[in-house]
Amino acid sequence: MKTLFDPVSVGDYNLKNRIVMAPMTRGRAGSERIPNDLMAEYYFQRASAGLLITEATVVSKQGIGWIDSPGIYNSAMVKGWQKVTRKLEPTGTPIFLQLWHCGRASHSDFHNGDLPVSASAVRLDGDKIHTPLGKKEYETPRALTNGEIKTTIDDFKKAAVNAKEAGFSGVEVHAANGYLINQFLDSKTNLRDDEYGGSLVNKYRFLKEVLEAVLDVWSPKQIGVRISPNGVFNDMGSDDFKETFMYVVEELNKLELGYLHIMDGLAFGFHEKGKPLILSDFRKIYKGIIVGNCGYTKETAEKRVANGSADLAAFGRPYITNPDLPERLKNDWPLNPSEDMSLWYTPGPEGYTDYKPYTHQPA
Description:
Elements: E1 8-10, E2 13-15, E3 19-21, H1 37-45, E4 51-53, E5 57-58, H2 75-88, E6 95-100, E7 117-118, E8 129-131, E9 134-136, E10 142-143, H3 146-165, E11 170-174, H4 180-185, H5 200-215, E12 223-227, H6 241-253, E13 259-263, H7 279-283, E14 290-293, H8 298-306, E15 312-315, H9 317-321, H10 325-331
Parallel strand pairs: 3-4, 3-15, 4-6, 5-6, 6-11, 7-10, 11-12, 12-13, 13-14, 14-15
Antiparallel strand pairs: 1-2, 8-9
Helix pairs in contact: 1-2, 3-5
């Protein structure tokens, strides 16, 4: 029976365990969005994972929607990320860069007064967004023109080129959690009547063309895709979510990618309009590596791996406060709590790199 601590191959990489550090926005890149020494230390501390996935990283200025998140669209950002990959190189742990465009989950304050963009002009109905000028109401985005869609696809391709120059092991295309690619997939946010909207084929087209562009740069086995089939984060969730994502996964299966990263509907925050899709539903049609993710404990993650519905399990919040998470899980050492969000996105090392590995207390 497979466990979290067994090795596994993902593409050309032999992982020392099946524990993945999930992508988590931490807001330490500063206003210029250039990765730095502090970020390099953060990832290095967590290199006992089998695989590291970086925080979401914007592919263009237009993709920005979060304060002080990193980018990958200029040479300074490439050099900044090289600090991370070079520090990790001696550990042998692969690290994939997550490629991100926020789409409508943004605000004009990030764009010199220009509206954020999306598949269609559908406003995000949610809590206020943190902008450089304070908390603001979400705005109705502007629908991308077909020409702008092509430009955005080119932005993903250039970001993939930059990620290779920065020394990453691969890239993960972020198509989940209500960001731009998810906005094209979901009929709630995609009201287009052109070749990018309407049918399943058309709604999938943007993701398909992004992947084709990235595949010009990276081999299939060095590419992952993240999806959230049942997700309602960022005001997502359509009545046809099952039909949509079963189709998406069938199409992704044809590409023989390195992995498919799925937000697990059995964990939390899943779509309430009917029974959620679960990993075993996708396992029936997806033949490659599946990374399960969403609120796992050691026990729930072990269950997914043991029954074969997932090959690896990604952990998010526990990794913030437990840099040595694999060792703690393997030895049943206690975990530091991760409920306090007050320091998640603040600048500096506090609440970021100041968590220590577990040490035994004398009896």
